[in-house]
Amino acid sequence: MNRLVMCLCAALLAACGAEAPPAASPAAAAAAATATPSDPKLARLYAQTCKSCHAFAAGGAPLTGDRAARQPRVAQGMAVLLEHTVAGYKGMPPLGACMDCTEKEFEALIRFMAGMDAGP
Amino acid sequence: MKRRDFLASTLGLAAGAMLPGCDDPGSAMPQPPAATTGPDGKRRLPWQNWAGYQHCLPAERRAPASLDELVDVLRNAPGPVRPVGAGHSFAPLVPTDGTILSLRNFEGLLAHDPVAMTATLGAGSRLGDLGEPLTAAGQALFNMPDIDEQSLAGAMATATHGTGSKLGALHSYLTALTLVTPRGDVLECSRQRNAEVFDAARVSLGSLGVVTQVTLRNLPTHALKRRVWIEPADALIEQFDRLAARHHSFEMYLLPFCSKAVAISIDPTSEPVRPRGPEQDNDAVMDMKRARDLTAWWPGLRRWLLDRATQEFQPEESVDVWHRVFPSSRAVRFNEMEYHLPREQLLPALRQVREAVERHPEIFFPIEVRVVKGDDAWLSPFHGHEASGSIAVHHYHLEDPLPCFADVEALFKPLGGRPHWGKMNTLKAAELATLYPRWNDFQRVRRELDPEGRMLNPYLKQAFGA
């Protein structure tokens, strides 16, 4: 089916605002692959939910701990990030992959992935 | 002028008029409730399913870490109590004002028997997480669905299935399960023990309590060869029965507004591993959408372009361990309707469905055609069939699916079609009761296990006539 891509839409990709995200640095990708929260409960929750998309660069999601990529997002404030998480945003489905997370758990996961707990 | 340049310039002329259609949410789409603060002062976050169509504002979200905690939730948490897995059901099975209950802490490979070739698994396990531990134990699932995001419990509760005329749905390989009822009783169920509950609980829509673990009959681990090719749709429809009989697993995707169809076969092999390349289906679907956005106003142009674009497709072959062969990434969200038909009705119905879908120019997802071996679970849509034929229609998640689904559903009903329990349908209790010979037995067992209806949300009350 990829031939459809080439034949139909190569000249028209900009039509719907397709925009490839900047590639993560190799260092950021390596760090994201092994990052895990220090709190065991949060670590288990992270492994069950966010990790499959945010630990690996292939899917295009912002990587865990990639503070350069996440800074503009963090600047929007926790309320916006939480709203995006609940409603889904771009490629991320509603609620991430955590259908039962509480607000507190979502905030803890967001803070961990954004590197907000690691200090300036 | 080269063909590609000609296509681009042709489409470019149309672009100006059609671009407003890009990702424009329909006004008819349901909107999620706003977050609120409950009487306990806690903020209540909305819940929504993967497609974003089903919503609710639950009082509590719970993920018990132990059996005792689970029993406490089932007995005492605000009702209705609704189990949630990956949120991948398109039907409103989860929405509740009460408690959303996750089994994510009941996961993993718990035990396996290499002689009986069975494995006991936590029912909260994601299908996609089962491949590595089962393979390490020397086992393989008989079959898997196209998507592997779902939890085992959710997949079985909704009779989720793959394709293959000799391959059953996931629940058909159950040999035992553990059910925790709304009153907190823990029931071990099999064909020998609590047999009626076993027959009801294999496919239950999460209405009997919560299934915490399951034992599955499996195969020795093995490699599979996957082949993908494109043919003229009419020719592929003519060959469908022969291909479905010849291949271990076979499915067909009819491309709407195109004269071609995609075929996928999967068969056991001893050939060396040749992994699939990067997933391309999501890009292809979005390009089908862009083609729709630009040419929906002229179906003839759309068909002409798609027919010529698909001419260049080269067949793809890959070989890998079983769990890397069945599932595909489905990142472009959609709503879905799927009906299971008596096998002999499949192809006549398919021709009608194709015509109905092409009366809706907004459709760009392929029509999915599969076969499933029958079984005897009371609420299995494959109950009593030697094999069922399944037709699924997908609709982009930001656009109203109901007009198209209504037209398609009208074709399935007279044929005795049974809806996939996790997908959109409008059947009510009276209609469902006529489709399932053990319907009344199921309702009797349900009332015995949950006399207060703690597991019933408004949708299930309507579906069960409770």
Overall SS class of chain A: mainly alpha
Task: Based on Cα principal axes, name the global outline of chain A.
Answer: globular
The helicity of chain A comes to 40-55%
**Series of H and E elements of chain A:** HHHHHHH
Please provide the count of β strands of chain B.
23
Descriptive report:
- The complex is a heterodimer of chains A (120) and B (466).
- Chain A has 120 residues and is mostly helical.
- In chain A, 49% of the residues lie in helices and 0% in strands.
- Chain A has helices at residues 2-9, 26-34, 40-48, 51-54, 67-74, 78-87, 103-113.
- In chain A, 35% of the residues are buried.
- By secondary structure, chain B is an alpha+beta fold.
- Helices cover 29% and strands 25% of the residues of chain B.
- Chain B has 13 helices and 23 strands.
- In chain B, strands 11, 16, 17, 18, 19, 20, 21, 22 and 23 form a 9-stranded mixed β-sheet that branches. Chain B has a 5-stranded antiparallel β-sheet with strand order 8-9-14-12-13. In chain B, strands 5-7-6 form a 3-stranded parallel β-sheet, with no helix packed on it.
- In chain B, helix 1 packs across helix 7 and helix 9 (346-357) packs antiparallel against helix 10 (402-412).
- Chain B starts with a helix and ends with a helix.
- The interface between A and B is large, with 33 and 57 residues.
